[in-house]
Amino acid sequence: MITQEQVDFYRENGYLLVKGVFNSAEVEEMRTATDMIIERAAQSKFDRSDTWQGDYLPPEQLKKLVLKGFHDVHYHDAAFTRALCHPNMAAVLSRLIGPNVQVHHSKMLVKPPEKGAAFPMHQDYPYFPHAKHSMIAASIHLDDSDMENGCLCVIPGTHKNGPMPHVGAHYLDHQEYPISSGTPCPASAGDVLFFNYLTIHGSGINRSLRPRRNILVQYRDPEDLPTEEVHVNWGQGLMVCGHNPIFKEYKGAH
Q: Is 62 helix (H, G, I), strand (E, B) or coil?
């Protein structure tokens, strides 16, 4: 799926957009699964908006925004289990992480038309810190994404900074790191943006009449151990490539 030149680009910049990882039929299957999860959630007591709170937007604007961010979507629909273990995904991840690749977690991020919430600039590290920083996010695009509907923006090379001090609910000072400071990463449905969990990233509000549906999967080297027991979920640790050199007994999260 990727060349040595692309691997080198990732090492230098901390992100890589890979075109056409999923075909149109696979994308449509995931769109349907995403819409069905939202529908089932709406009929349950677990429905919510995951809009980030904080001072990065005026309060009256913040309260109008919506973000659907349900975690562990591969527990809800087999379409996502197939996606996160897809041969094309494994081909890329084995070049970026190494021969052994393990799933940490998955989630859906859906910005509805006209009111899809922003993500202030941040690193993912504070949420699930690991010792060797092998963690990579794979953002699977289910819709064409651009600045109008809130595509991801990254600050190239910031993965080399190491963990940075965050404010609020784990985001960076929005005056020092506005979303406009990032490099936009527009993408087409079926493309996947891979980025290290230390790479600063964020996205703007969806101001368009189109949805922006993404599936985000976090992957790691199984020998890269967490430094804090946070963000643990049942079934964590599914092997996508290779094997787990550390033998242990797996049990459900407490």
A: helix
